[in-house]
């Protein structure tokens, strides 16, 4: 769903909500004495989640271009939200609502500011390859447990998806299944291996994520809505930091991207997954009109 802090300063002063920029000298030729304000941003993210990596590195690139010193901090969901609450983390751009991360928002939301929904149309649940023809609903899994080696391959234990997955296992009476706690990368490796061998496998997965553009997969029907319904992703900022950085709040409030266009960003990053910035720069170059609209 993990870096340290960097510090930096620019010649700027925020006074009464107005940003005054020092230009070196005033109209009389005297040097302007303008108090410096640090333009820094610490963005928290979970490395195993493709969409989280994508949006994080995208805003790292964009904020750096606008004079910010940006640090990334890779954390699990709990520490990330706690850090966002205390302002150790300034921005958390991958908050899934209204179900997945609801519990964290209830616990930490009082000191956070919602900067708006940037992606609408999320989905998540138990996923199998399309070549698994005899299982189409979660309730059908129990009768085919042995085919799946009695296991559902999950992700990080502290994630919202795993909490929902555990509830689904209970709600649908999957008594013969063991929900495996691992990590997003480990789950994706297991999916890749099983898919290559055309073996049955069931994993916890979500949209947006790059596997749906690489493999032919399907969600198992969830009539009890244990994984919720179609939702959205929003950005949360620490309240204190947001008040000190109204321009960023304005920029991120305009940040909107369609599933189709965002899938292109995921694909560009997946071409060189060890260097997300490469894919980000490629995508920005192909979407300059959209990106520029966020900064008007």
What secondary-structure arrangement, pairings included, does this model have?
Blueprint: E1 12-15, E2 18-21, E3 40-45, H1 50-65, E4 69-74, H2 77-86, E5 91-97, H3 102-108, E6 112-129, E7 151-153, H4 160-171, E8 178-180, H5 184-196, E9 203-207, H6 211-214, E10 217-219, E11 231-238, H7 239-244, H8 246-253, H9 259-270, H10 276-286, H11 288-293
Parallel strand pairs: 3-4, 7-8
Antiparallel strand pairs: 1-2, 5-11, 6-9, 6-10, 6-11
Helix pairs in contact: 1-10, 9-10
Q: What distinguishing features does this structure have?
A:
D-Maltodextrin-Binding Protein, domain 2, five-stranded antiparallel beta sheet, globular, single chain, alpha+beta, 296 residues, 35% helix, disordered N terminus
Describe it:
This protein is α+β, with helices and mostly antiparallel strands and 296 residues long. It has a domain at 12-95 and 236-293: D-Maltodextrin-Binding Protein, domain 2 (3-Layer(aba) Sandwich). Helix content is 35%, strand content 23%. The strands form four sheets. Strands 5, 6, 9, 10 and 11 form a five-stranded antiparallel beta sheet that branches. The chain has a two-stranded antiparallel sheet with strand order 1-2. It has a two-stranded parallel sheet with strand order 3-4. A hairpin with a 2-residue loop joins strand 1 and strand 2 (18-21). Helix 1 (50-65) packs across helix 10 (276-286) and helix 9 crosses helix 10 (276-286). It is globular and about 60 Å long.
């Amino acid at each position: 769903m993990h870096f340290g802090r960097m510090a930096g300063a620019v010649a700027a002063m925020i006074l009464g909500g107005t940003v005054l920029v020092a230009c070196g000298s005033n109209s009389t030729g005297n040097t302007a004495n303008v108090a410096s304000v640090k333009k820094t941003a610490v963005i928290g993210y979970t490395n195993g989640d493709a969409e989280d990596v994508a949006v994080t590195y995208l805003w790292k690139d964009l904020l750096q271009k606008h004079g910010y010193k940006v640090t990334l901090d890779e954390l699990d969901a709990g520490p990330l939200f706690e850090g966002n609450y205390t302002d150790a983390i300034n921005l958390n751009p991958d908050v899934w609502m209204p179900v997945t991360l609801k519990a964290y928002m209830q616990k930490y939301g009082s000191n956070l500011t919602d900067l708006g929904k940037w992606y609408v149309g999320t989905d998540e649940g138990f996923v199998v390859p399309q070549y698994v023809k005899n299982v189409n609903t979660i309730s059908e899994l129990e009768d085919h447990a042995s085919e799946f080696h009695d296991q559902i391959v999950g992700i990080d234990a502290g994630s919202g998806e795993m909490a929902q997955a555990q509830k689904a296992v209970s709600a649908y009476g999957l008594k013969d299944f063991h929900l495996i706690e691992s990590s997003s990368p480990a789950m994706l490796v297991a999916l890749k291996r099983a898919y290559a061998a055309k073996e049955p496998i069931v994993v916890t997965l979500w949209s947006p994520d790059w596997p749906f553009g690489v493999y032919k997969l399907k969600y198992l029907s969830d009539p009890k809505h244990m994984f919720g319904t179609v939702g959205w992703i929003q950005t949360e900022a620490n309240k204190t930091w947001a008040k000190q950085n109204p321009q960023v709040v304005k920029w991120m409030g305009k940040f909107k991207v369609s599933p189709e266009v965002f899938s292109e960003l995921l694909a560009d990053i997946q071409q060189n997954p060890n260097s997300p910035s490469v894919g980000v720069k490629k995508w920005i170059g192909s979407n300059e009109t959209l990106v520029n609209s966020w900064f008007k």
